[in-house]
From TrEMBL:
SUPFAM superfamilies: F-box domain. It comes from Urochloa decumbens. It comes from the Eukaryota. This is F-box domain-containing protein.
Length: 416
């Protein structure tokens, strides 16, 4: 680039894209980059180029955590429980306003009054009306949604759906555990139903099973308590009496199954009949398939975390944290009695906890105190109180890229 002539005024706009990129890549956070990318179309082009993003994400590998998306199961009461630390960050103000507006707009969606959330991932929601055969993929940040082609009619009566990378969806069979072996399971078939975002088509797939796990899988597959996705793997919690408590892992990249034995501690824990066995939460640790397992001893306020590598079969105890001190501090500060400790979500090395206070009379929900625990630094943050119900659902929400207040790719509106 030639030097400007003497006496001629220059501005930042006179710089070529490469020097602009050298300045923008040194911004302190992804949130700052999101604000800069809204300045003009040219800066947006620099900020969204693959080469620039690779450099920027090497400097800032973690997306900012904005809070927990909270819902009782549907969109009518959807809200964002903001992380306490983000409220004082000016660089996140625009993103938080955009997310609040997007959540409010979805909660006011009147096409169906009873839309329930099947899964959430990276700003996308899979929605289904309770009484109608429709399925929607909704982009929370742009407010756009598409109605997906309806799959086979018996899918939703016995299957749970999960969002995969790229907007693909998989439905897996579920059969609630029962004592009566004479009652046939709701899902006799052994298939999965996969939706391809690229073709818009559904396909029935018969997943294979690792040879060494065939017998165990046959014995436990009709006793699925619940399922959870971690990365591209769907884990189904089984409680077969003949094989012990275990996980059936469905790798959606290869559509193959394997059995994952739970840590010995969870094998010994007794759960009274009738209590839901959502006794732990899985956590995606990285993009290499390593996962964490987080279990809370509700009555004793003890948190245990195990780690498991994708290529291994053994769990390693990573953390055992006694949280009685935190419970006592919260109880004294708010003058309440703490009943139990629960894990509501776990994401990328951070565990989001809920401390439940004793329920008051004529109260529809429980007064809860939320706190986030970083497992690497063992520091607490985001301690705040909310009134929620025990069955409510929570999804960790991080600042996505692309930023929530930018027009989607291909829009041609003029920049101000």
């Amino acid at each position: 680039m030639a030097a400007p002539a003497a006496g001629v005024e220059t501005s930042f706009d006179d710089l070529a894209d490469d020097p602009v990129g050298e300045v923008l890549v040194r911004l302190p956070s992804q949130a700052s980059l999101a604000v800069a990318s809204a300045v003009c179309r040219r800066w947006r082009g620099v900020c969204t180029s693959p080469a620039f993003l690779r450099r920027f994400h090497r400097r800032h590998p973690g997306a900012p955590f904005l809070g927990l998306i909270h819902s009782a199961g549907g969109v009518w009461d959807l809200r964002l429980l903001r992380d306490a630390g983000t409220r004082s960050r000016p660089d996140l103000a625009a993103s938080l306003r955009a997310v609040d507006a997007a959540v409010l707009a979805l909660s006011r969606l009147r096409r169906y009054q009873d839309l329930q959330i099947l899964d959430y991932r990276g700003g996308l929601l899979v929605l289904k009306p309770r009484k109608y055969n429709h399925l929607f993929l909704h982009d929370l940040l742009t407010g756009r949604h598409v109605e997906l082609r309806w799959p086979l009619p018996h899918v939703f009566s016995n299957m749970s759906g999960f969002l995969l990378d790229g907007g693909n969806i998989v439905f897996v069979c579920e059969n609630e555990p029962g004592n009566n072996r004479q009652v046939p399971p709701r899902c006799e078939s052994d298939y999965s139903c996969v939706y391809s975002a690229s073709t818009g088509e559904w396909q029935l797939v018969q997943p294979s099973c690792r040879a060494a796990d065939t017998a165990r899988y046959a014995a436990c597959r009709h006793d699925v308590a619940w399922s959870q996705r971690a990365g591209e793997v769907v884990y189904s919690r089984c409680s077969g009496r003949d094989v012990g408590r275990c996980l059936v892992a469905l790798d959606t990249r290869t559509m193959s199954r394997s059995i994952v034995t739970l840590p010995s501690y969870l094998q010994r824990v007794h759960f009274p009949w009738g209590k839901p066995e959502r006794d732990f939460t899985l956590m995606e640790m990285d993009d290499r398939g390593n996962i964490g397992l987080v279990a809370a001893d509700e009555a004793n306020f003890v948190l245990r975390v195990w780690l498991r590598r994708e290529e291994g079969d053994e769990w390693t105890l990573y953390r055992k944290v006694v949280l009685l001190g935190l419970a006592h501090r919260v109880a004294e500060r708010y003058d309440v009695h703490m009943n139990s400790l629960q894990v509501v979500a776990a994401y990328s090395g951070t565990v989001h906890l809920r401390l439940v206070a004793a329920a008051e009379e004529q109260c529809k929900g429980s007064l809860c105190f939320f706190a986030s625990l970083n497992l690497a630094s063992m520091e607490f943050s985001n301690v705040q109180s909310e009134t929620v119900c025990e069955e409510d659902r929570f999804y960790p929400f991080t600042l996505p890229w692309r930023p929530p207040f930018l027009p989607p790719p291909g829009d041609e509106e003029a920049d101000n």
